[in-house]
């Protein structure tokens, strides 16, 4: 049984690729919606005990980057990570692919932090701890296409503002995470 995830920058086209059957995943594909509901809360509760070690990693990451991290956004990202892990822990029949899975959640925490040795080590520890998928599909588009899509979405994200440093750092972190997973 495959538990896979699609990973890529926001607006790279992960959902579009599946919805338009560009690739046949031979399994169920779940786009996990934004927002909060009782199902997501249950997923978080199911995953806290098996993944309690993540709190130590997140604590070290916050301590070494606290002047660069928005605390509310950081806590939200931790909750999303636990929710994704809980979703994957549930019993599924057949193959399952999810959009914005654990590796995407790792990227969301690191994407605007320096790609230095301390952060790389913490990212590797986090990846090792949350590697529950056995297949990753990387989705990428050219930079200009990506920036236009971000503008169309009108979501607040550093990449949307055309900040070349944020865009480059986001892409570098994504590449690092995919390579570290492999």
Topology:
Elements: E1 3-7, H1 14-19, E2 28-31, H2 38-48, H3 54-65, H4 71-89, E3 96-99, H5 102-110, H6 117-130, E4 135-138, H7 143-153, H8 164-181
Parallel strand pairs: 1-3, 1-4, 2-3
Helix pairs in contact: 2-4, 3-6, 4-5, 5-6, 5-8, 6-8
Describe this structure in words.
The model has no long low-confidence stretch (mean pLDDT 83). It contains eight helices and four strands; from the N terminus they run E-H-E-H-H-H-E-H-H-E-H-H. Strands 2-3-1-4 form a four-stranded parallel sheet. Helix 3 runs antiparallel to helix 6 (117-130) and helix 4 runs antiparallel to helix 5 (102-110). It has helices at residues 14-19, 38-48, 54-65, 71-89, 102-110, 117-130, 143-153, 164-181, and strands at residues 3-7, 28-31, 96-99, 135-138. With 182 residues, it is an alpha/beta fold. The protein is 55% helix and 9% strand.
Key attributes of the depicted protein:
alpha/beta; 182 residues
SS summary, helix count: 8
Estimate the strand proportion. Answer: 5-15%
Mean pLDDT: 83
Radius of gyration, in angstroms, nearest whole number: 16 Å
Number of strands: 4
The string of secondary-structure elements, in order, is EHEHHHEHHEHH
Largest β sheet strand count, sense and barrel closure: 4 strands, parallel
Give the low-pLDDT segments: none
Shape: globular
Strand order of the largest sheet: 2-3-1-4
Structural class: alpha/beta
Estimated helix fraction: 40-55%
N-end to C-end Cα span: 18 Å
């Amino acid at each position: 049984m495959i538990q896979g995830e699609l990973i890529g920058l926001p607006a790279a086209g992960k959902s579009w690729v599946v919805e338009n059957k560009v690739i046949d995943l031979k399994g169920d594909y779940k786009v996990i919606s934004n927002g909060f509901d009782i199902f997501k809360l249950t997923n978080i509760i199911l995953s806290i005990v098996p993944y309690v070690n993540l709190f130590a990693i997140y604590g070290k990451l916050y301590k070494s980057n606290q002047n660069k991290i928005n605390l509310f956004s950081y806590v939200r990202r931790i909750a999303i990570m636990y929710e994704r892990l809980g979703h994957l822990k549930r019993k599924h029949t057949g193959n399952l692919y999810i959009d914005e899975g654990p590796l995407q959640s790792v990227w969301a925490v690191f994407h605007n932090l320096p790609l230095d040795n301390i952060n790389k080590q913490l990212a590797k520890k986090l990846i090792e701890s949350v590697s529950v998928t056995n297949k990753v599909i990387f989705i990428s588009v050219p930079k200009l296409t990506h920036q236009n899509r971000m503008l169309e979405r009108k979501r607040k994200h550093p990449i949307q503002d055309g900040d070349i440093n944020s865009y480059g750092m986001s892409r570098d972190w994504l590449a690092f995470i995919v390579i570290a997973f492999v």
